[in-house]
Structures are given as C-alpha cells and as structure tokens.
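About this split. The held-out portion is used to measure sequence recovery: a designer receives only the structure tokens and must propose an amino acid at every position. Recovery is the fraction of positions where the proposal matches the reference. Here is one held-out target exactly as it appears in the evaluation file.
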C-alpha cells in the first residue's frame, strides 16, 4: 500500500517495529486502555499491536497508518476498518500521542485517509463515532469534513458506565473546502 502525504507535511505510512515507543506513549493514558482488546503496556504489547495492524492490512480487513512528522516519529494513527463492500462504507478511527495533540495531526491524517478510501477503495460513505464527552475528537471529525448525524444512546460501556456516542459521516460527494 502506498504512503500518503498531507498538505500540512505529514506522512502516512505502515506501522514499523521502530514505532513501538510511540505506540506505548499513545496507550499510556487510562482512556486509551479502552481502545484495544489486549493490553499495550509494554514493548511486547506494542509490537503485538503493530503486528496486528500488518496482519489486517495483509488480509485487507483494516488499513492503519502511522501519521509521521518531519523528524520521522509516529505522532498518531488513522485507520479504516469494518469495510463493507456491499454498501461501499467503512469505519474511521484515529488517535495521537499526547505531545502531538493540538498540532493538526489527526485532522490532516483523517482527511488523507478519506481521500484514499474514496479514490483507491471506491468507498462512498465513511463513518466514525466518539463519546459525547470527547470534545477534541468531535473537533477532529468536523475539521475532517464529517457531518454530525446524531447520538447513539448508551452505545459504549467501560466498566459499569455507559456512554452516549455522537455519530459522524462523510460521503464521497460531500463538498468540503480542503480536498
């Protein structure tokens, strides 16, 4: 799969074993624990996470990129999963390391991923969701051209607490001012 670039100067590329320390930093905050089905709390966990991204890519069941800055360090992740060829749709997710937050890493990466998904995979609809209390994730969605479509009540459960999720979507023929 090709590398992608953004107008902001970020590179999207496959995950590499050398990215393990960035993955560990990203998964260090408690809220990131909930974003994976197995612990990413040591080097072997980070390498397993990276290997799973490579396996998904090889099987064409998921497409995950490291968003890399000028120094070559992975600053975040953008991914496309749950690709449905019948409906030409997919699910977008993203995260950044704490030090990369507020630098436009996630929106730039999501916009590049969306262009690739529409142009290369021929998808028509991309969806994403975030907890309603995650204002930063909502900003990424809207800055990436994803329109809000509503609230899914009590969709996520972390421990004993349920969270509402705001759903966003972007269509291949949506008019956005940054493509």
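Reference sequence for scoring:
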């Amino acid at each position: 799969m090709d590398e992608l670039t953004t107008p902001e100067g970020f590179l999207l590329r496959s995950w590499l074993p050398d990215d393990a320390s960035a993955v560990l930093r990203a998964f260090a905050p408690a809220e990131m624990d909930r974003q994976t089905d197995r612990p990413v709390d040591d080097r072997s966990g980070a390498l397993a996470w990276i290997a799973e991204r490579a396996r998904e890519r090889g099987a064409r069941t998921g497409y995950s990129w490291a968003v890399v800055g000028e120094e070559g360090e992975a600053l975040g992740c953008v991914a496309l999963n749950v690709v449905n060829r019948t409906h030409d749709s997919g699910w977008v997710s993203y995260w950044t390391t704490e030090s990369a937050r507020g630098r436009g890493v996630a929106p730039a990466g999501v916009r590049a991923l969306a262009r690739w998904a529409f142009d290369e995979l021929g998808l028509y609809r991309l969806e994403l969701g975030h907890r309603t209390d995650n204002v930063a994730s909502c900003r990424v969605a809207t800055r990436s051209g994803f329109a809000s479509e509503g609230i899914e009540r009590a969709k996520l459960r972390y421990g004993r607490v349920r969270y509402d999720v705001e759903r966003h979507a972007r269509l291949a023929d949506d008019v956005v001012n940054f493509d």
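Annotator remark: The chain is about 25% helix and 35% strand.
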